[in-house]
Structures are given as structure tokens and as C-alpha cells.
Design goal:
The chain is of the alpha/beta class and 524 residues long. It contains 26 helices and eleven strands.
């Protein structure tokens, strides 16, 4: 991987981790737990496969899965493991740290359908007892309801050690009462190192077979990066694994957002908008973050953009919808206005025509870094005296398509640098899609170098086509830059023009048969 990209990610990681941990109330016991986890994470490991992990899980009595409480991706692996048990017709009990054991009867009543979500949250005093995003954990309860699985409440008040001891006792009793059931335990990642809850249970039940599954450990990620691997499964031992499914700074971003927006919300337990939608409103320093990301990207990729030019932007979210609508109405023709109003209604993020103004439907690192790429691309257009507004208001449909493709390509490329786990439908996905629509077929034609036939196509469909094409080209651009097939981005972005010949030259430089094959071997 290109060293500059690795340095950029490391810098982003260190900044976000430092900020996230600064919110925590420090105490000696927590620091010792964190030091212990870091020490264990630095052990040697080897690469493993999903088949290895599935086999181990199916042959275990207890499976521990580490939880980073603000990060929704950790929940997805709970659902995947439960589905493994369901497919194998194995009985399963879910153990959750998020609910105090004194509320076990309330949990049972909720699973039996006697309580609504809000009634459940109020009865267990969710805002005071846990408070982390309910939308994450709700998915587990929905799965438990669907398959009539028991959910075991494991938490209690007290020190970390007291809570571990209590959870170990409850888990042990559950196993003794249902020895044939698998116990899948979702607990804070600091508590599932070998010498914490797993050791306490092993002392009581040495015959039990267990599996520990860590998720997105910082030290494991950085070791994998050195080997040019950005995701995967590793094993520390036969019964201890770590799944890397996201870069570690993404989880710290989620922690920062929670502290700055949800932690002190007095109405969190009955706040319907947050509970049902989980929408993220901009924090005060989002504009600074946007500028910081843009600045770091151009510095590490050695792009010729001045800071003064970079600072010329406005960024708004859904809390400023009325203002965005006024800007659109004052500057756009009826047909363009209708197009951008539909983008607003569908929750899309975009750059406003005729302005260096960006609308981001809700805050996330993925959206912000995507828009940062669009911002950098438009700066280069302006440096080359190309007016995107003139393109959008002209009758040249092909140029509109190419403009949108470039926006999607550079947006995706820069977002991929910040989050290398970002994925899109690739060429083979479009080719093999049995439900492929006209837009996807036209995207394939463009990627294959066929003539553009856009007669009668509305701007919304042109955008749909461009997103498919642009994201695929952005993926290949990322591969070439990361693997140093291209020396740097500057020559590419400087030659980005809206005419068909220039676009085809870029397409051919990114796509080749060898590239297709190499990419498919890597991802499929």
C-alpha cells in the first residue's frame, strides 16, 4: 500500500481515538482493563477463514463476542452467528450486557410481545442504565422474537470486576439449566479477554468448550495493513479469533458522535426520531472536520490545491433544509429544481450547482469524506475553467453523465482512502444481476466502451447510471493508487475533462482485463 495513504489513516486514527477517549471518565480499573486488552491484541496471530471460525463456533458451548457499544457493525456479527445456529438447527441463548439482570422478567415480556419498544426502554430505564444507540441492539431483539430465542440479561451495578464475576455466574447457571443450548454472549470488548469472563467460567466449568471472537482490534488492524490486507479474520489460538470488518477510526468516530449528541440527551429514552431513525445531526465542528479531511487528503496525495481555495465551501445538513431549498429555488431552472428536490426528499448528499455548497443528509465519516472528494474534484474543474453549472444547464446529455461519473468516482475514491472497507457493486455484480434494470445495463455498456445512448433519459436516471460507473472506476483508481500502479493522483485529476474522448482515455487507463481478474480474485 502506498505509504502516504497509510500515514494519513494512522493520523486520522490517532486524532479520533485521542478525542474519543478524552470523553471517558478515567479510573485505574478501566485503564488496567484497556492495557490488558492492548497487551493481548499484540500477540502473534495467523490468518483464518470464515469456515474455520464457523466450525469452531458450532463446536463450542459458549461464544463470546466483543462489543464496542457505539459501533453498529459489531451487531452484524451477532446476527450472522445466530443465523449459523439456526441453519444448523442448534438451540441458542443470547446473553447481553446491555440489560441489567434485575430486568429479566421485563426482557421476557418484551420478547413475548407484551410491551412496545418505548415501554420496554422506559421500564428498564434505558437512558440511565445503558443509553447506547437502541437501533443497534433492537436488531438482536427482533431476531430473537422471530426465532423465539431466549435473551439473558447479564449486567449489574458495581466495579468492572464485580460485573464480570456476576455475568460469569449467570452464564454458568444458564448453561447448567440448558446444557444443550449454545450461549452467544455479547459483552464489552474489554471483558472478553481470556483472563476476564472466559477464565471465570472456565474455573467453574472446565469441561466447557468456548470461543472468543474479538472485533476490530486496533493492533490487529495495523499489523494487517503492513501486509497490505485491509480486512479478514485472524486467529490467536484455536478458540480465539478477531474479525476485522472496519478500520478502527470508524468505531472511534461513532463513540465521539455518541458523546457529543446522544449521551446527555434528556429525552433519549422517548425521543422517537433518534430511536426509530438514528439520524445524525451535525456537531459544531463538522465543518472543521470536513476541511481537515480535505486538507489531509490533498497533502498526503500531493495535490496542487491551495488552502485558501480549499476553504471556500459551505456545508449543511437536514437541519437547514429550508435554507437549502431557498438556495435551489433562487438559482435553478424548473427541471433542475425538481431534480435536486427529489435528491433532498430521498436523503441523498450532493453538491449544489453554482455554489461550493454541500448538502449532507446526516453526519458520518463516509458521507463527509465522499463529499470531500467531490469538493476537491470541483476545485480542479474551476482551476481548468470548467463550469459544472454550464454543463448541467446545457443540452449535452453526455457531458452531464460524465460530470456525474467523475463526481461519483472521486467521491468514492477519497471515501475509500478514509474507509478502505467501503464496497460497491462491481462489474461482475452488474453482469450477473438477474434483476438488472436499464440503468445497470447502460452502465455496463459504458464500462465496455460502447456508444452512449442516452436519448430520452431523465437526469435522475443519468445520475443512477453514473453512480454505478463512477463507483466502479473509483474502486479501480483506489487499487492503482494504493498499489502504486499510478505514481500519484495529480496527473489523473488534472486531465479530467467532460468530453467523451477524455473520459474514454481515463476509463481505458483504469480498466484492463488483468485488472478485472486481479480484482475479482481479491474480492470474490
Amino acid at each position: 500500500m502506498k505509504l502516504e495513504i497509510r500515514k494519513l489513516r494512522k493520523k486520522i486514527f490517532e486524532n479520533l481515538k485521542s478525542k474519543a477517549l478524552s470523553f471517558e471518565q478515567r479510573n485505574i480499573e478501566l485503564e488496567l482493563y484497556q492495557e490488558d486488552q492492548t497487551k493481548n491484541s499484540k500477540r502473534s496471530f495467523k490468518l483464518a477463514t470464515i469456515e474455520d471460525l464457523s466450525h469452531q463456533v458450532l463446536n463450542s458451548n459458549i461464544i463470546y463476542l466483543g462489543d464496542f457499544h457505539t459501533f453498529d457493525q459489531n451487531i452484524r456479527n451477532v446476527l450472522r452467528i445466530v443465523n449459523i445456529f439456526i441453519e444448523e438447527k442448534s438451540s441458542c441463548i443470547l446473553g447481553l450486557e446491555m440489560v441489567s439482570h434485575k430486568n429479566q422478567l421485563t426482557v421476557d415480556a418484551y420478547l413475548e410481545g407484551h410491551l412496545t419498544d418505548l415501554e420496554f426502554l422506559e421500564l428498564i430505564n434505558y437512558h440511565q442504565s445503558w443509553r447506547f444507540p437502541w437501533t443497534h441492539y433492537k436488531l438482536i431483539f427482533e431476531l430473537a422474537k422471530k426465532h423465539q430465542l431466549k435473551v439473558l440479561a447479564l449486567n449489574k451495578e458495581g466495579s468492572l470486576e464485580d460485573r464480570d464475576q456476576f455475568a460469569a455466574t449467570v452464564i454458568t447457571e444458564a448453561h447448567q439449566q440448558s446444557p444443550l443450548s449454545k450461549l452467544l454472549i455479547l459483552y464489552g470488548e474489554l471483558h472478553i479477554t481470556k483472563n476476564k469472563i472466559p477464565l471465570l467460567i472456565q474455573k467453574n466449568c472446565p469441561q466447557l468448550k468456548d470461543t472468543i471472537i474479538h472485533q476490530n482490534l486496533d493492533e490487529v488492524y495495523w499489523k494487517l495493513i503492513k501486509s497490505n490486507l485491509e480486512q479478514g479474520i485472524v486467529s490467536f489460538a484455536k478458540n480465539e479469533y478477531c474479525i476485522i470488518s472496519a478500520p478502527p477510526w470508524i468505531k472511534y468516530e461513532s463513540m465521539i458522535y455518541w458523546y457529543e449528541n446522544l449521551c446527555d440527551d434528556p429525552d433519549f429514552d422517548i425521543h422517537e426520531y433518534i430511536i426509530e431513525n438514528g439520524a445524525k445531526t451535525f456537531i459544531d465542528d463538522t465543518k472543521e472536520n470536513f476541511y481537515h479531511i480535505c486538507n489531509e487528503l490533498i497533502e498526503h496525495l500531493e495535490l496542487k490545491i491551495t488552502k485558501a481555495t480549499l476553504e471556500d465551501f459551505n456545508l449543511f445538513d437536514h437541519s437547514k433544509l429550508e435554507y437549502i431549498e431557498v438556495l435551489l429555488e433562487d438559482n435553478l431552472s424548473p427541471s433542475l429544481l425538481t431534480f435536486y428536490q427529489k435528491l433532498l426528499l430521498s436523503g441523498k448528499s450532493f453538491r449544489l450547482p453554482k455554489h461550493s455548497t454541500y448538502y449532507c443528509s446526516s453526519y458520518s465519516m463516509n458521507r463527509i469524506s465522499y463529499l470531500a472528494g467531490v469538493h476537491i474534484f470541483h476545485i480542479f474543474l474551476e482551476q481548468n475553467n470548467i463550469s459544472s453549472y454550464s454543463i448541467l444547464t446545457s443540452k449535452k446529455t453526455i457531458e452531464k453523465l460524465i460530470l456525474f461519473i467523475y463526481e461519483a468516482m472521486y467521491g468514492y475514491f477519497f471515501a475509500k482512502i478514509i474507509n478502505p472497507h467501503r464496497k460497491c457493486d462491481m462489474y461482475s455484480d452488474l453482469k450477473e444481476d438477474k434483476n438488472s434494470n436499464e440503468s445497470k445495463q447502460l452502465a455496463l455498456n459504458i464500462l465496455d466502451g460502447a456508444d452512449f445512448n442516452l436519448t430520452g433519459k431523465k437526469l435522475a436516471q443519468i445520475l443512477e447510471i453514473s453512480l454505478s460507473v463512477g463507483h466502479i472506476l473509483g474502486e479501480y483508481l483506489y487499487i492503482k493508487i494504493a498499489n502504486q500502479s499510478f505514481p500519484n493522483l495529480q496527473p489523473i485529476i488534472s486531465k479530467t475533462k467532460s468530453d467523451k474522448d477524455s473520459f474514454n482515455n481515463l476509463r481505458l487507463s483504469l480498466l484492463s482485463e488483468q485488472d478485472y481478474q486481479a480484482h475479482f480474485k481479491r474480492y470474490f
